[in-house]
Specification:
Structural class: alpha/beta
Strand content: 5-15%
Order of helices and strands: HEHHHEHEHEHEHEHEEHHHEHEEEH
Number of helices: 14
Distance between the termini: 71 Å
Strand order of the largest sheet: 2-8-7-6-5-3-4
Bound molecules: pyridoxal-5'-phosphate
């Protein structure tokens, strides 16, 4: 006798069912892409040359990450055992959370911040404790200190933060690490190059500090998916137990050495973005638009109740920007990535037109 076939699929864990859906736009985006904080131009030409030299063996064999990890560690002044390459910083975050967060543990987060922290926490049974930043979106240091409990197991700080572009100081980060020795302090330095300040030099000296970095932003390798986590050897040993040995693919491994060696290209791109950021901020000021001072390659701008229309009009003018209205405390705010000065001229022209249309519309009402 054949068994009855059930018609519904098995349900996932309750925690997963309760998760909010996170759907960044992933197709049909043929415009100036100022919505993902990517490098808006290109990676180093040396990376393209390396891609051209990829041999068949690089594809048939499983990727061998150790030599590249050793090279990167030397580049950063760290020991190879202190550094793990990951499939983008996203994998570093995911694996760190899986390594340290048990049921009943607490992940402490200032918000608004990078959305994926909450997503990966939801893949564990830990509790997410959020601390809302004030209207100035400055790092809520005192409130974070006050929220630390014996169950705090990870404190995640994006520095500079997204979507605000604001930063926590080195002294504040050190104080957090010291106040919560039972917790891992993860400093996510995805936007480090546009800021210039780091706590990477404290890795190893501070027993509960880990630093995450990505090659998706300034280096322009978002499509290859490569990032890293650095921390004390004892801690990284546990992380490596959870990390897939093969999650960083051979093409990414072949491209990382030329990317980190080409300091001239990185410096040029970062200099270009910093200059473009200053020009774009001046343009926002001239239009009388409120913005938050940013140390990253994006600026958060106050649009108000017509934020969705603003995003639509900018898109129609050929510029993609990101509505952050659903982030905590960000209603009516839109994040705009900073590209090159040339690209930002196009963005400023689109902004001028969009604001003229919006303001004409408000007067007519
Ligand atoms: C703060 C922060 N961390 C990490 C990431 C993701 O980096 P990756 O592309 O290396 O996964 C982002 C991407 O937007 C980010 O804003």
């Amino acid at each position: 006798m054949t068994q009855a076939v059930t018609t519904s699929a098995p349900a996932p864990r309750a925690r997963v069912q309760a998760m909010k859906e996170y759907h960044p736009p992933l197709g049909n985006r043929d415009a100036l892409r100022l919505d993902f904080n990517e490098n808006t131009l290109d990676c180093s030409p040396k990376v393209r040359e390396a891609l051209g030299r990829i041999a068949a063996g690089a594809l048939t064999r499983y990727p061998e990450r150790e030599p590249v990890e050793a090279l990167l560690a030397a580049h950063l002044g760290l020991r190879p055992e202190q550094v793990a390459l990951t499939n983008g910083v996203d994998e570093a975050i995911h694996v760190l959370f899986q390594t340290f967060l048990d049921a009943g543990d607490e992940l402490l987060l200032p918000v608004p911040t990078y959305t994926m922290y909450e997503v990966y926490a939801s893949a564990t049974e830990a509790r997410v404790v959020t601390v809302q930043a004030g209207d100035d979106l400055q790092f809520p240091f005192e409130q974070i200190l006050a929220a630390i409990t014996p169950r705090t197991r990870i404190i995640a700080v994006a520095n500079p933060n997204s979507p605000s572009g604001t930063v926590a100081s080195r002294a504040q980060l050190l104080a957090l690490a010291q106040r919560a020795p039972q917790a891992v302090l993860m400093v996510d330095e995805a936007y480090f190059h546009f800021y210039g300040e780091t706590v990477l030099d404290l890795v190893g000296a501070v027993p509960n500090l880990v630093v995450a970095r990505t090659f998706s932003k300034a280096y322009g390798l978002a499509g290859l998916r490569i990032g890293m986590l650095a921390g004390p050897v004892e801690l990284m040993r546990w992380v490596r137990r959870v990390l897939s040995p093969y999650s960083v693919n051979s093409l990414a491994l072949a491209c990382l050495p030329p990317a980190i060696e080409d300091a001239a290209y990185l410096d040029w791109y970062v200099g270009e973005v910093r200059a473009a950021r200053a020009e774009f901020e001046s343009a926002l000021d001239a239009l009388g638009m409120r913005r938050w001072p940013s140390r990253a390659n994006f600026v958060l701008v106050e649009i108000g109740p017509r934020h969705a229309e603003f995003v639509r009009l900018m898109n129609a003018a050929g510029v993609l920007v990101r509505d952050r209205s659903s982030d905590p405390g960000c209603d009516g705010r839109v994040r705009i990535t900073i590209g090159t000065r040339e690209q930002m001229k196009q963005a400023i022209a689109a902004l001028d037109r969009t604001m003229t249309t919006l303001r004409a519309g408000s007067e007519a009402q």
